[in-house]
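Service request form, structural biology core

Requester: graduate student, group of Dr. S.
Request type: structure prediction, single chain
Budget code: on file
Notes: please return the result as structure tokens.

Sequence provided:
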Amino acid sequence: MKHCRRLAVACLLLPMAAWAQQGGGHGGWWGQVKDDGPVAAQQGESTGTEELHAAVPEPAGPAVPLDRATLASFECVEVRRFETTSGGFIASKEEARAATIPAGRLLDIQRSVAGQVPEKARGLRSTLVGEGWPACPDPARALVLGGRLVDYKAGNQALRYFVGFGAGAQKFAVDVWLARKSDGSLVAREEVVDRKVGGWIGGQDEKGLEDFAEKVAGFVRDSLRPGPP
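Core staff response, request fulfilled:
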């Protein structure tokens, strides 16, 4: 009887996986914009226009404390595509796994994060660093969000359901940073991790992406909360 139930669920799982790949798994903001923009940007290719949006290198050193008025003044976030290696060298098995992520998946992450920022951090709007997307109008009131992917597991929904015990686990881990666009100073830095090891019929892979994007947007929100007086 148990095997019969699993076979029945498998029959449901296969068409649902195809539906997700066709875009059904992307909800809300992503579903509205996933097909927008030039083909090169959709495929994850460099368009050469990123510098027009956020010519801000990865910040070095500690975060610079900001007063309440400055924290409240930010109104726009430019979301960069996450990088996969530091200096071109791989120093761990986690970085080796991160280097296997498809360019298109990095674009998925970038756009999903940009969609979650206004949802989680009320009062902020976001844009993507890339062809066809506007830069924040006032650098003095703008932030740049970037980061480096330090681990990645694509995951497998069927394995998570039928095998379990960690098989088919999905993972995103990014060393995320937030900087002022005006001077490049670091506002906050944190490693954001999301794992999916189960869920309803193994948990949809796109749900893992959405959950990760929500965590990154939550990092932005929390970074702009003033500390105790």
